[in-house]
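okkk here we go again. third time trying to get the magnesium ion bound version out, last two times i messed up the smiles copy paste (missing a bracket lol). double checked this time i swear
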Amino acid sequence: MRHEKEDPVVLSGLDIGTRKVSIVVTEKDHVSSDFQIIAMESIRSRGIGRGEIVDKDLAVESIRKVIEIAENNSDFHVSDAILSIGPSAVETFTTEHTFRYREEGAPERPVTSADMREVIRKTIGRAKEANEDFLIHAFPMAYSVDSGSEVRDPRGFKGSEISVRLLLVALPVQTVQDIIHCAEKAGLNIVGIVHKSLSSALGSLTDDEMKHGAVAVDIGAGTTSLAFFRDGSVQDIAIFPAGGNQITNDIAELMEIPCSNAEHLKREVSLNEDPDDLGDELEFQMDGEPFVTTVQDVLDIVLPRIEEIILRFVKPAIEGNYSRNDRRIVVFSGGVSRTPGFEDFLHDCFDEPVRVAEPVNAQSLPPHVRGKEFTSTAGIVQYIMEKENHPDLYIQPSLGEKINAPGYDAGQNILILDPGKRSVPGSRKRGKSFIGRFFDALKNAFRELF
Ligand SMILES: Nc1ncnc2c1ncn2[C@@H]1O[C@H](COP(=O)(O)OP(=O)(O)OP(=O)(O)O)[C@@H](O)[C@H]1O
Ligand SMILES: [Mg+2]
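finally!!
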């Protein structure tokens, strides 16, 4: 039955994954201002490869289908949506600018929230002038007043000039446009975009973990994403074009069997298999004939691929981002983390604390979508709430120019450069973050392997 509330504010999150496309439908509670989950559905995606659109028609069809299921189950019309996307062509870099915030000749005065917003707006403006990519996220990392030491919150500091250091996350414009176009063709009105690494982190890390230092690693079908948190905020993100599909494809190719059978075999073996069980036979029918293999044979294919992802890419990426003395926990999610024995395997690989996560808001989700592969979908709801509560920390620099979002409070959440105002002198520093350069090297190594 349709809910009879006056003017319901319904906002959805669409997670476009390589294997599944999932939607979470929320309604804003007018009293608490929280977003309540009213439906969440997921189906097998088609037309998506390694987080990118490879066949537009198939992708649109998948998105349409999952919307239809969610609408039927919730009795709400789904329109405004935030997308969670994970193309691997992501780049991160930091940029820093200094601007005068005090009028010439006026007495020194403390920095206000309005000054902070203004310096962010201008810094993003400069970044856009220098960068043709789609800036999907901007995270303020630190401020300083009159070249003093860096602080997270400069309000109250007295001076004349304010600097901000921003972490920017960029994607090729065409890649983002293709995804937005498919979602819009399927009937959605896109009001926000979040990178999979961030939605997955927000959907898997506790507040304490984000505060004390954590890395969220989501190993999906086509991509492995990482988001690094320290002092409660994002330090960097990264993504590799590798995931569970490669494991399935390896089994299919080496055993000369269809992918559907390979997928089935993959889920039958555990990474900490009892040595006594390694000789156990696994059997299925192929073309009317029995196909027989052993646990050992399947494991010999699965294990090296998982080791490759964890030991060659994830672990070095973490070591490159944090010093040995940093306190941190590594939290895994995504479909591949459902592999039997995965958590024990991780404990053998890492010296630091490590765990495998289900969505943080799992109790609010329908039982069929509470699994570890849904952190990025469920995390869109966390993202919506974070953006509501901290609009100055979760900024979407390029979105205002690309979307038509009537009724959405663009002024508050999306900062767009006013091209008329460029008179304030500023200094510019731009450089790929350390981890950005590091990942480029890793990605190149990765391309050679897969
Ligand atoms: N029980 C399991 N054992 C082993 N692998 C599994 C299991 N369940 C799911 N997977 C694997 O997880 C992958 C799907 O993960 P997930 O649903 O997180 O991907 P996705 O979100 O669609 O992709 P991506 O985020 O990479 O674009 C598939 O490769 C699938 O084979
Ligand atoms: Mg995913």
